[in-house]
């Protein structure tokens, strides 16, 4: 969705719609410096009347759509406002200089070594095999070996994140994945 930033006339009229009842003790900001972030085009700048250091950004899109509780965020940073604009309204930086925020990667439930190798830990022999595999793998030793390899081969540390290399490590020992080594 492409929302156009409001022009000066719209800004003046939009304060008439502002839900002051939801922000008791706040007034329009008397900030001296201009706000340079793109998020201010889509929000209101308000401050506590008795403490001008307590400023908030209030989502103009929420106010315009008459949401009962418009989203607001402390104005000391812009990330919360930016994430709200993207997640709730699919609005991102109109200049294109900043990409839309990404959601955190969802972690897949970790599987243990017995599940990965399809070992029945109720069987004494298979339980012993699982314990031997687990006992032989030391995450810190593995990480030290990888770091030594990277340094000695004069490679980038990003090399260790290569999906094909990770797949080879996990093939050799599934504990690389389960211990997030």
From TrEMBL:
Region (Disordered): 67-109
Annotated Polar residues bias: 72-81
Lineage: Eukaryota, Fungi, Dikarya, Ascomycota, Pezizomycotina
Domain of life where this protein originates: Eukaryota
Biased composition (Basic and acidic residues): 85-96
Name by which UniProt lists this protein: BED-type domain-containing protein
Organism: Fusarium oxysporum f. sp. narcissi
């Amino acid at each position: 969705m492409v929302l156009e930033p409001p022009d000066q006339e719209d800004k003046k009229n939009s304060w008439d719609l502002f839900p002051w009842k939801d922000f008791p003790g706040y007034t329009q900001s008397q900030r001296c410096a201009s706000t340079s972030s793109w998020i201010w085009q889509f929000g209101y700048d308000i401050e506590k009347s008795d403490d001008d250091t307590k400023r908030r950004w209030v989502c103009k899109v929420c106010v315009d759509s008459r949401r009962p509780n418009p989203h607001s965020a402390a104005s000391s940073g812009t990330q919360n406002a930016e994430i709200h604009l993207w997640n709730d309204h699919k609005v991102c930086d109109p200049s294109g200089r900043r990409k839309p925020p990404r959601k955190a990667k969802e972690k897949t439930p970790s599987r243990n070594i017995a599940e990965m190798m399809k070992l029945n830990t109720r069987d004494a022999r298979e339980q012993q095999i699982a314990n031997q595999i687990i006992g032989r793998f030391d995450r810190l030793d593995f990480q030290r070996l990888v770091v030594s390899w990277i340094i000695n081969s004069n490679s980038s540390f990003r090399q260790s994140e290569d999906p094909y290399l990770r797949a080879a490590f996990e093939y050799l020992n599934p504990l690389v994945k389960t211990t997030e080594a």
